[in-house]
Design goal:
6 helices; 6-stranded parallel β-sheet; about 190 residues; Rossmann fold; single chain
């Protein structure tokens, strides 16, 4: 018997939820972007699963280990909780095809825009990725959405303004100033589809 599949929101981390510090290696340097915690809290209240998918090639490049990435995610979850927000899961890709650390030197399926992290999340959390949303600030996030059949929402935080100028608008379903605007849109859209 097949389980009922849920719609979910896949969020990018750097530039979408937190300030992109370029290879963030210290939990104390996390800065949550305006509208991010509020947006996640809105999705939580609506009962929509929130899953972070993030490329962390700093591991492959030898800048930091997996334990640093995981400590940053622990701290991020604590900070979101202070705002009454939570994420249901965090997936990260430590690989890069030109990585210095041989163990992580790989052109893998999980590195966005590859579908691997989203597919793992869908399988592990009973998610219908074709009825879900990807929210991010980079072209790779929009390409991920297309690769998995989800709706692609661009936020103008992080690299979002540059991405908006550079990417073909046919690859973006909607654009928002912050994550809270994207969350409001997602909630309205999902209510229509009920």
């Amino acid at each position: 018997m097949q389980k009922h599949l849920k719609k979910a929101v896949f969020l990018d981390r750097d530039g979408t939820i937190i300030v992109d510090a370029h290879f963030l290696d210290d939990p104390e340097r996390i800065e949550i972007l305006p509208g991010a915690a509020e947006g996640i809290k809105l999705l939580n209240k609506a009962g929509i699963p929130v899953i972070i998918l993030t490329n962390q090639s700093g591991v492959a490049r030898g800048y930091f280990g997996r334990e640093v990435v995981e400590s940053i995610h622990d701290k991020l979850c604590e900070m979101l909780a202070e705002h009454g927000a939570r994420v249901d899961a965090i997936y990260y890709c430590p690989h890069h095809p030109e990585g210095e650390v041989e163990e992580y030197r790989s052109d893998c399926r999980c590195r966005k825009p590859g579908p691997g992290m989203a597919e793992d999340a869908a399988r592990e959390h009973s998610i219908d990725i074709r009825k879900s949303f990807v929210v991010g600030d980079m072209a790779s996030d929009m390409e991920l959405a297309r690769n998995i059949g989800s709706k692609a929402l661009l936020v103008r935080t992080g690299e979002g303004l540059a991405t908006e100028r550079e990417i073909d608008n046919a690859n973006i379903d909607a654009v928002f100033d912050t994550l809270s605007g994207a969350a409001e849109y997602i909630i309205r859209d999902m209510k229509k589809g009920v």
